[in-house]
Description:
Elements: H1 2-19, H2 33-36, H3 39-44, H4 50-54, H5 61-69, H6 80-83, H7 94-99, E1 128-132, E2 135-139, H8 166-178, E3 184-188, H9 197-208, E4 215-219, H10 222-225, H11 232-239, E5 244-249, H12 258-269, E6 274-279, H13 288-300, E7 303-309, H14 324-334, E8 345-350, E9 355-358, E10 364-368, E11 371-375, E12 381-385
Parallel strand pairs: 2-3, 3-4, 4-5, 5-6, 6-7, 7-8
Antiparallel strand pairs: 1-2, 8-9, 10-11, 11-12
Helix pairs in contact: 8-9
This protein binds pyridoxal-5'-phosphate (PLP) and iron/sulfur cluster.
Amino acid sequence: MVSEVLQVQKIETQIAKKTLEAPHLSLYKDVDPLDWEDWHWQLKNRIRTKEELSKVINLTPEEEEGLSQAKGRMAMSITPYWLTLIDPHDPNCPIRRQSIPTKYEFIISPHEMVDPCAEDRDSPVAGLVHRYPDRVLILATEQCAMYCRHCTRRRLVGVEHKETILGRLESIVDYLKANRKIRDVLISGGDPLMLEDDILEAVIQKIRAVPSVEFLRIGTRMPVTLPQRVTSGLVSMLRKYSPLWVSLHFNHPKEITKRCKIACDMLADGGIPLGSQTVLLKGINDRPYIMKKLMHELLKIRVRPYYIYQCDLVRGTHHFRTPVAVGINIIEKLRGHTTGYAVPVYVVDGPGGGGKIPVGPNYVLSQAKGKYVLRNYKGKIYTYLEE
Ligand SMILES: *Cc1c(COP(=O)(O)O)cnc(C)c1O
Ligand code: SF4
């Protein structure tokens, strides 16, 4: 037992030494590697104010203005780890644009909504969204390590008072027991990995104990924004509840660092299947070659691309939104041109509660009785005759 603990410490110190080569920011040059590797330290030392940020990043006037207004649900939070990935001189840095507010967030476009997917309407119990027949979404926390500027749930996230899910858990579990068609529970948020391991385990255990629940998923961005959160303790806890899948949220190849790979390796080696959801974001990942690179890098760290989302009509996200045609074109440039596993499904979440609706290139040119005229990825035409 003691030797096991020592072994883990040794590995974690090795990892820490490796990652310390990365923080090029002088801000962190005196940080103890063990602190750097401690996710609580990372959370405690998050950058929350314009004053702190302006010491290390050359802020633009747009960012300065955004930072003066970003409060409450719009608050900024950047982990020291994530900060080290930001290009301090390039305002278009994809890591930077996802995390530093700008004045554009305070411009509301005509079609934008507070709750574009009408999750609140489909919530029969506080903290649970029941939209599809056989599966539900649980909003386990209101906190995330880093607040994404494009967040769909910004009406919910960003408040740091810790009302834990434990108070709601009983009514959630009662609902699951009363609705035996629910076989799949997705625990998301906010970020469920913001919970301490023992609280997260209590949640998982109670949900897993419902006989009709056969499949669990955890939706988290922390392996991307704070990979230190993935500890050996977390992995050994999660693996007890197999089958449990983890859905990650990656938007740009720059997010796939050596440190992030270590976190994903630990999860994958622990037998936890990993998927990734990506939000299509203007100027960040709206070029097919960047998306292709991201999907390839994900496969290399054993993460299966799952969805690309059209950026929802959330208030203050107009500057991130592309036309739907941009997403369709990205799928066109992936399907057939690269590994099938590298091709996610592009979806639009039907505004007002329609759920995820797949949109993509059309490969069926015409369809008559017993005859399909199809095109392949190169545009060549084929006829398929049915018997
Ligand atoms: C996305 C989502 C799910 C899960 O959908 P899948 O397509 O099965 O991944 C479930 N409930 C809600 C409300 C969702 O938004
Ligand atoms: S991690 Fe998810 S819930 Fe949290 S801010 Fe980012 S998009 Fe929103």
